[in-house]
Structures are given as C-alpha cells and as structure tokens.
Amino acid sequence: MSIRLRLTMWYTGILAGTLLLFGAGLYFFLHYYLYDQIRSEMQVQGNKTYQRILPVYSLRGSGLDLLLDDTDVLSSSYYTQVYNFTDNTVSRSWLLQQTRTTLPVTQETKKLLQEKESFFEKITLWDEPFLVYNKPLFLPTSGGGYQIVGVLQMGTRIGTFEQFFQLLQYILFMLAFVAIFAAATVGLFLARKALMPIDKVIAAANQIQQGADLGRRIDYNGPYDEVGRLTHTINGMLDRIHAMYTELDEAYRAQRRFVSDASHELRTPLTTIRGNVDLLERMWTRAAEASGEGNDGHDPEQLQLSLEAMKDIAGEAQRMSRLVGDLLSLARADAGVQMEKAEVELKPVVEEVARRAAFLDRKAEWIVGSLEALDGVRVTGSRDYLQQLLFIFIENAFKYTPEGTVTMDAVRADGQIGIRIADTGIGMEKEEVPHIFERFYRADESRGRTSGTGLGLSIAKWIIDEHGGSIEVMTRKDTGTTFVIWLPARFQAALQ
User: Taking a C-beta distance cutoff of 8 angstroms, is the pair 453, 438 a contact?
Assistant: First the structure.
C-alpha cells in the first residue's frame, strides 16, 4: 500500500470519526434537550392537575370519585385522564372525549406505579407515537399508610419530533458520507501532489540504478522542506559514492593494467631464461657424460651438482611461467575479456584430455570411466578453455592424491551434462570448500607443501561462469574429493 493511500485513509478515518462524534453529539443533545422540555412541561401541567383533583367518597355506596376539574377537561392542550382503580372508571379531558379514546393502563403500568413516584412511557395511539406521563393517586388508609386508588395520565403527540429526528439522522448520515467522500477525493489529490517530488526522487534513483550513471543528480525546484532536505541528502550521498566509485575504479584499472603488463613483461625474460637453461642443461649433460667416460678433465661430482642446479632453475622458471600464465588469464577475466565461443562437440574434447592426462606426472592410478553420456552432446563454448578447465581439475587431483586412484566419467541430469573427476586423496574439511575458488588460497599445511600457484581453481571458476555452468563439490577429510562440472548442453541422437 502506497504512502499517499495510507495518508488518505488515515485522515479520512479521522474525519469520519470526528463527524461521527459530532453528529452523535448533536443528535443526542437535541434529542435530550427537546424531550427534556416536553417532559418538564408535562410534569408542571400534571402537577397542577394533580393538585386540583379532590378524591372524595361518593354517597353512592363505597365508591371513590376521582374527577378532573372543568379546566382540565376543557382547556388543557394535553390528552389527560384519571383512571379510578376502585371501580375502573375513567375521567377524560376534552381532547380524549372528542376522540372517544382512553389512554391504556396495562399491568406493566400498574406495576411501575407501585415502584415509582411518576414516570414517562412511549406508546402508540392511532398509529402515532405518544409520550405519556403517569402519576399515581394515593388515598390514606386507616393504618396510617397509603393506597393507590388511581393514576393521572397525561399524553402528547410526539410524531412530529420523531419525524424530525429521523430526518436529522438521514441528513447527518448524508452530510457525513458526502464530506468523507469529498475529503477522501481531495485528500488523495493533495497527497499525490504533496508526494509528487518523492515520485521524482524514486524515478531519478531508478534511472541512476538502471543506467549505472552515478553522475546523474535528482532535480528538485521546490521548497527546502522535508522532501527538499531528502533530495539534498541523496544528492550529497551520490556525490560521495561517485567520488569513491571513481577512485576505486581507477585503482582497479591500475591494478589490472599492472597485472596484465607485468605478466606480459615477465613472459619474455622467463622464456629466455627457460631457453638458456635448457641449452645449458643439454650442454652440461653431454659434458657429464664425456667426463664419465674420461674424455676431459672435469670433475664428475661438480658436473652433477651443476646439472642439478640447472634442473632446479629450470623447474622454478617453469613454475614462474605457469604463475605468469595464470595471472594473465585472471587479468583477462578481470578486464571483462569475452572468450570466443562456438558450438563444440564435447566428447572428442574430453577424450583428448583423458588421453593426454595419462602422460602427466602422477603417483595415483588414472582411470577413465564411462563417457557414453557425452554421445551427441554439444556445448557452446571455447574448445581450448574447456580443455584447460578439465586439466586444472585433473592436475589438482593428481597433486593431492599421493596414492590411490583418480577417475573421470560423465553423467546427464536436467538438460545438463556433468563431467565428474573423483580422487581418493587427502580431501578437505567442509569449512574449506567455500574458499577453494579464492585466489592464492591453500586449504591446509599439507596443501602448502604441494607445489602450485593457488590460482588454478580461480581460473576454473571463471571458465565455468563464462560457459554458464556450475561446479558441485563433495569432499571428506582423508577420504577424497569429487568435482562435478555441470555445463548447459544440447543433446542429439547418437549416430548409429
């Protein structure tokens, strides 16, 4: 739910509550005030009439005559009557005499007369609402108490007032509805207008995010209110981010240039060193062989030591060459170099790698399992980089498997082809797995004693990402490690 809608609902709800309280207060105040006036007038008139009634014993038997005065009968504006409980006779005012009607006296009325000094009740007479004032008539008894001998009733029509209050309810409800609707409409318009600068801020921020242009700024020409301060703060934050990003980008570009340039510069002298070392190694080998046959005066032991030194130099130069090559590959990856890709039939690539892997320096047994899953499989990628990828995992398996086996096979699953390379070597702890693709990471001391640059798996991860694949790792300490290289593939029916 948007802020403008929440704001509109909030102040519409507050307005509705305010109107409800105001309307209810006005209604009940008028209701109480008008009916209080009517009750007060009826009580005053009823008390006057009550004072004029003279209960006397009739000479006709033991009956009691309770009669209205002529003033009550002729001039009263209320419907007045006196009901005599002793003989169930009724003395009525002129208005009731004209209508030939009596006010009802129910058992409930008689019960309330026993409990209250006077009370009001609403009745329906002639299909109209009436308000009736009831006041009991007492007669002293011989025992010193009082006996209710009748009731004075005074009624008045209240239909006009009831219609007025019904109309008032309707008017209040209609006014409240119209006011709430108008307030919600105008409030939504005002909220949209007030929050429009925030929409501009959001739109500008989205353009900056989508376009990756940190040089853009949010245009705001309004007052320096909350939105203005927010815009100013965001623009200031973008200034700082832009400056920091520019510095980092320049430093990153300088680092990439350094690695790339250093790799290129180091390859030439390393090539020269390796060439000269190889030449010297061949020369010293021939000299050592001639010395062993007694053809010259060189010391055979010194020649052997020199030969071993040359081999050490050659080995380190070869190691540095691999390191420089790896650094150059990573520099290309950091620079965003896109490898050239084409549709490649995967099985010949894997078979070639399997054949050449048999000639690598190793102590473990090399086993090539079933490659039938590769029949008719094509991938979009680079043949050379795919071979490099497989060699990285195979060489790693040979390094960390001083004895046992290294196996390679292929599997299919969910439209992907998986090349599995498993060893029975030293394995890893599960805590080490998330870090093995980091540059220069060596898992433990035993790995530290194993030759390597620590960059192979980083390069492998880059090659896998460039091919849209993934890597699955399963390992256990002192048991072995299994890597499964998953690549998106297109499967074709194998040729018969």
Answer: no
Please tell me which of 2-6, 196-200, 284-288, 353-357 the model is most confident about, judged by mean pLDDT. Answer: 353-357
Residues 475 and 440 grouped into a single domain: yes
Whether residue 65 is predicted with pLDDT greater than 60 in this model: the reply is no
pTM of the model: 0.43
Whether residue 36 is found in the same domain as residue 135 = yes
Say which CATH number the domain at 474 has.
3.30.565.10
Residue span of the structural domain in which 137 resides: 3-165
In a domain, 204, yes or no: no
Q: Please indicate, yes or no, if residue 406 is contained in any of the structural domains.
A: yes
Mean pLDDT, residues 408-417 taken together? 91
pLDDT for position 437:
83
Lowest pLDDT segment from 231-240, 242-251, 263-272: 263-272
In a domain, 206, yes or no: no
Q: In the predicted model, what is the mean pLDDT of residues 15-39?
A: 85
Q: Both 311 and 356 in a single domain? A: no
What's the token pair of residue 85? 């409980």
347 and 485 inside one domain:
yes
Question: Which one, of 264, 263, 265, 259, lies nearest residue 335 by Cα?
Answer: 259
Q: Are residues 311 and 374 in the same domain?
A: no
| Residue 107 placed within a domain | yes
More confident residue, 257 or 70: 257
Give the mean pLDDT of 450-477: 83
Shared domain for 411 and 395, answered yes or no, is: yes
- Residue 120, beta-bridge partner list: 133
Is residue 378 located within the same domain as residue 394?
yes
pLDDT attached to residue 446: 45
Domain CATH code at residue 101: 3.30.450
Is there a single domain that holds both residue 65 and residue 93?
yes
Split into its structural domains, the chain has a count of 3
Mean pLDDT for the chain overall:
78
Instruction: Kindly report, residue by residue over 163-205, the tens digit of the pLDDT.
Output: 888 888 888 888 888 888 888 887 777 777 777 777 777 777 7
